[in-house]
Amino acid sequence: MTRHFLEVDDLSCAELETVLHLATAAPADRAPVLAGRGAALVFEKPSARTRSSTELAVVALGGHPVYIQGPEVGIDSRESAEDVARTLAGYHAVICARVMDHEVLVRMAAALDACADGRGGHAGPVPVVNLLSDRAHPCQALADLLTLRTHFGELAGRTLAYVGDANNVWRSLALAAAMVGMRTRIAAPEGYGPEPDDLARVADLGGEVEVTTDPTVAASGADVLYTDVWTSMGQEDERAARLEAFAGFTVDEALLARAGADAVVLHCLPAHRGEEISGDVIDGPRSLVWAQAAHREDAVRGLLAWVLGAESGGAS
């Protein structure tokens, strides 16, 4: 059965461990699951890290990445999301997409499932992978776990403090953290915190989230401080209001001093120094941001290996 990856909890906890194991496989141990095959990389939103990491991950698995910009397919303007998916599935072994609207991914996956059932055409069973949507950023969350495991080892029982709004990055991160036994805190201004449904999904995974409007409370004794830009792509008209609302939420040396003695700092990038994070923190000795960015390739490589059927010899 074809498995899509639209959010982290599309995986079971055991499957997540398999993906992470595949992501750390040595070059000689990587199954060439894309040998002689194409991978469609659809980008409605541009990205330096996502494009580079995904293209190189495809190549590492023996495949040929085809970068497709939004206007080239014109999802729901030139062609429907369903027709784009059916067309690309005729050429490629996997469709990876970075989209504005998460529902586009859901519709693409449903259209290909219908094809596989003989109800929607002749396209084969092709997985859809979410490279980013307005609701989720699951490949980033995989890279975050790889970064933290490389640094700390076992993550169960550690505390991750997220300072910023409960956006797509936080949502995927909170789910991933719950799946490996981490506690999560989030500090956000009033009106920018998690939705009840998000908290319920984390709880369903056995996770624990502490919600506060005080960054110092979230940071106290934490093992990890994580932040993201206050104004994401597509929210430019909210910039002035967000800068005002998030005043006092900068991850700086004073906030880092409240965290645990061995605490580290993550940021999914791009960064706005002097806004959500200070320059001395992101460029300081406790920052794992650049290792985190590098792990994006490992994460996508492990994920693609899994959705295309590779097995992990050492994962439980």
Description:
The protein is an alpha/beta fold and 316 residues long. Helix 1 crosses helix 13, helix 4 packs across helix 5 and helix 6 (138-152) crosses helix 7. The protein has 13 helices and nine strands.
Please compute the radius of gyration using only Cα atoms: 19 Å
Give me the count of strands.
9
- Percentage of residues in strands: 5-15%
The low-confidence parts are none
Spatial arrangement of strands, main beta sheet: 7-6-5-8-9
CATH C-level name of the largest domain:
Alpha Beta
User: Whole-number average pLDDT?
Assistant: 94
In CATH, the homologous superfamily of the largest domain goes by the name Aspartate/ornithine carbamoyltransferase
Helix-strand makeup class: alpha/beta
Write down the domain tally: 2
How much helicity do the residues have? 40-55%
Keywords summarizing the entry:
single chain; 316 residues; alpha/beta; Rossmann fold; 2 domains; 5-stranded parallel β-sheet; 4-stranded parallel β-sheet; 9 strands; globular
Please summarize what this structure is.
It contains 13 helices and nine strands.
Secondary structure layout plus pairing:
Layout: H1 13-23, E1 38-43, H2 48-60, E2 64-69, H3 70-73, H4 81-89, E3 92-98, H5 102-116, E4 128-132, H6 138-152, E5 159-163, H7 168-179, E6 183-187, H8 196-204, E7 209-212, H9 215-219, E8 224-227, H10 239-245, H11 253-256, E9 264-267, H12 279-282, H13 289-307
Parallel strand pairs: 1-2, 1-3, 3-4, 5-6, 5-8, 6-7, 8-9
Helix pairs in contact: 1-13, 2-13, 4-5, 6-7, 6-13, 7-8
